[in-house]
Design a protein that fits this description.
By secondary structure, the protein is α/β, with parallel strands linked by helices. The protein has helices at 2-17, 28-38, 58-61, 67-72, 84-93, 121-131, 162-175, and strands spanning 24-25, 42-47, 75-80, 100-104, 111-116, 136-143, 150-157. The chain is built from seven helices and seven strands, in the order αβαβααβαββαββα.
């Protein structure tokens, strides 16, 4: 009996102590607003929970073990793609196969990763680790004058890449 009471107290205290940031949103709009407010990328999972072939593994959605830190780096949104709302969200992302996973950068403006179909636990962990900073990487390739050698630079966005900035200046001056 004492063990049951202790276990109950631990379970209740862990639920109470769990911050809201570890929860999954069911509303894409609210999740996107949250990611824009707290500078974390948004992890979106669309699946059909009633169909085992189209459902994400429940273990992958749980913030336990080493996955706690990885999932904690994200705002999270889990949507049932079989509902009317879920179908609309799936259409926005161009999701045709489920489960579908997308990650939006920490500014809430660019999809930096899309994955259709089931991911193994290793693929899931790798994807979460790779995009947890929520930064999009842009590969720029340029040629040096008189040289056929390519120079390649990776720029983390939002960037101060001279080519990007020049493009922005040209666009804004042509609009005026």
């Amino acid at each position: 009996m004492v063990q049951f009471i202790v276990a109950s107290v631990i379970a209740v205290s862990s639920i109470v102590a769990t911050p809201e940031s570890t929860q999954w949103h069911a509303d894409y709009g609210k999740a996107l607003a949250a990611t824009r407010n707290d500078d974390r990328p948004l992890l979106i999972v669309l699946d059909v929970p009633s169909d085992p072939k189209s459902a994400v593994e429940s273990v992958q959605l749980e913030a336990t073990g080493e996955q706690t830190e990885l999932l904690g780096a994200y705002q999270r949104c889990h949507i049932d793609a079989s509902t009317e709302y879920g179908k609309k969200v799936a259409q926005v992302f161009g999701a045709t196969k489920f489960p579908f996973t997308a990650i939006i950068d920490k500014t809430g403006s660019v999809v930096i990763c899309k994955k259709m179909g089931r991911l193994s636990n290793d693929q899931w962990q790798e994807t979460l680790a790779k995009y947890q900073k929520g930064e999009r990487r842009i590969q720029h390739t340029s040629f040096f004058r008189g040289d056929n050698m390519r120079a390649s630079t990776t720029v983390v966005s939002p960037s101060n890449c001279p080519s990007c900035q020049l493009g922005k200046q040209q666009t804004s001056s042509s609009q005026n």
